């Protein structure tokens, strides 16, 4: 390592060594795609790279040693870079600011829309380094994340332009030997400062895969200092596992090929980061590869943005699948539950029969909950959030788990002394925790420990780990087990819909996805920590809620009124579903008139004045939907009560619902729910 003090050598040896260092550093400087300039204390140009001229579109002849800073400002002003105004005033103002030699960072939008980040660093003894970075693509990606998923899908394909090819022109000495050698020694110090300042990872690796140069950014990226990188092999610096991944690319560079690739590594703090690298070989006069330059950029934010988009696209796909299944499946469950409940009511005293009927009813109702969870997960059915005491919910769930999980699994809780309230849908939270408990059970086939912990959490800055979370008060719920744990590859895909490591009959791969969907929809965050052989902790952050005011009571359920033979028009295209609803209406005391489509129903409404209420499905054949039927029926018979029933929340149209004042009843529903929909009470 050069100590910075000159070593006595002959003039010829000093010049050769300085020239080699000069050429090496300047070649590395021209590899970066940021523009760079160095001005001395008299504001005259002493160093620059080709990217500076390309990014700011300056003519090559303007860039010469000694060119005044004012010349570049005047060139920009004359071509309108600073907008309308007096050119002399624009030049004078900017030159005056530059003379202050103050550190500065700013963004400038050029007339063609290009966004440049300008970062100036003063040098000791006046003068300054300025780095120009084209951040147009970065700004586009930031806007991309804020747009809707459709906009994200369109914009994400606009990838960051590939790194520009290296311009490896070596500058030859044009002055006498002593002056050039002195200038090169000075240039070496300046270039070291420059390469340590630029936001890129630059290194030079010889043909034996030993580092001969590394800037500060490269050393920081590897978690080392420059002194502990230079002189070491790539395998030593990167580690044996990552070296195996990089080796095919390194071999291509050793063979004289320019290589571009992306890779990831795990930092000491456990966070995965991503980089895009380019390897550019250095070919000697004899045609042999002497080594290669390595230029890398941190693309972690870009990768996380792309992963967020892919996750959103998968959610959308699952949503479309759930919406397609929900209508038909809920119709089937309506028939199943309706017949089972009728059997239960008519044979309530048949104990032996009820031993078969009751579990079937419970299983069918569980099917209803699964469909609702799937729709909620895919954001096609809204949540019903409220302020809930999390500790009480966890205690109730723990009682259920103790009777459901194997006795070889011990269940403990850690609850705060004071009640904690979260603002979430209680049914979805209970289902989420149940899913996590069942996953923990599967991870501990031979038994183990399951622990549920609750604690308050105040987030002061945006973000927890790698995921964004708005500042505020949260309730942190941790479900922890000491099971088999997950490796990095499994952990990276844990929230993917339909991804599972279980046997084909052991799970759908939607459990964690549903948990993720519920927490995200609740404006919270879910995070997983796992170690192979040590267990897994799933951590949920939910927005804090407020306790209910003293004396507040839940509204009492209105009484179910029996009908007195009023005539109800039932409109349903599915014969078996229509049969079940007819049976419910008759049990409630109504007379029933049936139609299997909207057109037939409208004709009946016109002809039969005794119809007191219409109960209609939303989705029907024949060109007249339930919503259209309700609208036309109201025009024909103002004040006519209409109840709409649906197998899927997606069938509902929010605008029509508000206009008609109808809140649909979702299948499958009980006889009591149907009665309340027909007569909602005061």
What does this structure look like?
By secondary structure, this protein is α+β, with helices and mostly antiparallel strands. The chain has 21 helices and 22 strands. Strands 2-1-5-4-3 form a 5-stranded antiparallel β-sheet. A 5-stranded antiparallel β-sheet has the order 7-6-10-9-8, sandwiched between helices. The protein has a 5-stranded mixed β-sheet with strand order 12-14-15-17-16, with helices on one face.
Query: What characteristic shape results from the CA principal axes?
Result: elongated
The order of strands across the largest sheet is 2-1-5-4-3
Helix count? 21
> Segments where pLDDT lies below 50 for 5+ residues?
1-7, 165-170, 173-182, 504-509, 551-559
Work out the strand percent: 15-25%
Q: Give the N-to-C terminal Cα separation.
A: 87 Å
Radius of gyration: 35 Å
Q: How many structural domains does the protein architecture include?
A: 5
The percentage helix is 40-55%
The CATH topology name of the largest domain reads: Heat Shock Protein 90
Q: If classified by CATH, what would the architecture of the largest domain be? A: 2-Layer Sandwich
- For the secondary structure, the number of strands is 22
Instruction: Give average pLDDT, whole number.
Output: 80
Helix-strand makeup class:
alpha+beta
CATH class of the largest domain: Alpha Beta
What would CATH call the homologous superfamily of the largest domain?
Histidine kinase-like ATPase, C-terminal domain
């Amino acid at each position: 390592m050069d100590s910075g003090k000159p070593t006595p050598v002959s003039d010829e040896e000093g010049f050769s060594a300085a020239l080699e260092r000069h050429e090496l550093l300047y070649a590395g400087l021209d590899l970066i795609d940021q523009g760079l300039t160095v001005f001395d204390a008299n504001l005259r140009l002493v160093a620059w790279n080709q990217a500076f001229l390309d990014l700011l579109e300056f003519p090559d002849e303007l860039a010469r040693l000694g060119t005044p800073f004012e010349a570049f400002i005047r060139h920009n002003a004359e071509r309108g870079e600073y907008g309308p105004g007096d050119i002399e005033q624009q030049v004078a103002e900017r030159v005056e600011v530059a003379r202050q030699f103050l550190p500065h960072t700013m963004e400038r939008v050029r007339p063609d829309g290009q966004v440049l980040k300008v970062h100036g660093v003063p040098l000791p003894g006046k003068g300054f380094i300025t780095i120009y970075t084209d951040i147009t693509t970065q700004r586009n990606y930031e806007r991309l994340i804020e747009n809707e998923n459709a906009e994200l899908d369109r914009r994400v394909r606009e990838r960051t332009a590939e790194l520009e090819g290296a311009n490896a022109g070596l500058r030859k000495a044009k002055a006498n030997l002593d002056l050039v050698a002195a200038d090169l020694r000075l240039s070496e110090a300046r270039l070291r400062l420059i390469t340590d300042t630029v936001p890129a990872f630059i290194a030079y690796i010889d043909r034996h895969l030993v580092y001969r140069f590394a800037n500060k950014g490269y050393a920081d990226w590897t978690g080392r200092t420059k002194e502990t990188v230079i002189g070491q092999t790539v395998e030593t610096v990167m580690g044996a596992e990552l070296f195996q991944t990089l080796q095919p690319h390194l071999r291509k560079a050793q063979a004289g090929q320019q290589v571009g690739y992306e890779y990831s590594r795990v930092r000491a703090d456990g966070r995965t980061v991503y980089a895009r690298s380019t390897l550019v070989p250095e070919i000697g006069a004899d045609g042999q590869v002497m080594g290669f330059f390595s230029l890398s950029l941190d693309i972690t934010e870009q990768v996380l943005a792309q992963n967020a988009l892919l996750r959103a696209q998968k959610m959308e796909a699952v949503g479309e699948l759930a919406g397609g299944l929900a209508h038909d499946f809920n119709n089937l469950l309506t028939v199943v539950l309706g017949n089972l409940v009728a059997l239960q009511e008519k044979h309530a005293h048949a104990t032996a029969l009820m031993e078969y009927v009751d579990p079937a009813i419970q299983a069918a109702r569980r099917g209803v909950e699964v469909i609702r969870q799937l729709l909620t997960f895919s954001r096609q059915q809204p949540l019903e959030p409220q302020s809930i005491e999390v500790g009480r919910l966890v205690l109730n769930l723990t009682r259920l788990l103790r009777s459901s999980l194997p006795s070889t699994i011990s269940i403990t809780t850690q609850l705060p002394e004071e009640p904690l309230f979260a603002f979430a849908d209680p049914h979805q939270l209970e289902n989420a925790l149940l899913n996590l408990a069942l996953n923990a059970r599967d991870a501990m086939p031979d038994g183990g420990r399951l622990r549920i912990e609750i604690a308050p959490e105040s987030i002061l800055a945006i973000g927890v780990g790698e995921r964004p979370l708005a500042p505020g008060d949260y309730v942190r719920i941790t479900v922890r087990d000491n099971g088999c744990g997950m490796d990095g590859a499994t952990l990276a895909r844990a929230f993917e819909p339909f991804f599972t490591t279980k046997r084909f009959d052991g799970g759908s791969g939607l459990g964690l996805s549903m948990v993720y969907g519920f927490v995200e929809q609740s404006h919270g965050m879910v995070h997983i920590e796992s170690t192979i052989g040590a267990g897994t902790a799933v951590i949920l952050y939910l927005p804090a809620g407020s306790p209910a005011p003293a004396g507040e009571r839940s509204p009492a359920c209105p009484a179910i009124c029996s009908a007195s033979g009023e005539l109800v028009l039932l409109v349903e295209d599915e014969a078996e579903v229509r049969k079940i609803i007819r049976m419910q209406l008759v049990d409630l005391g109504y007379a029933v008139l049936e139609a299997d489509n909207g057109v037939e129903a409208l004709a009946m409404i016109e002809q039969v004045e005794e119809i007191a209420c219409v109960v209609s499905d939303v989705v029907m054949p024949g060109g007249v939907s339930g919503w259209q039927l309700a609208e036309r029926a109201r025009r024909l018979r103002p004040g006519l009560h209409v109840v709409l029933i649906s197998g899927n929340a997606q069938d509902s149209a929010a605008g029509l619902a508000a206009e008609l004042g109808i809140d649909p009843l979702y299948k499958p529903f009980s006889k009591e729910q149907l009665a309340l929909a027909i007569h909602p009470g005061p």
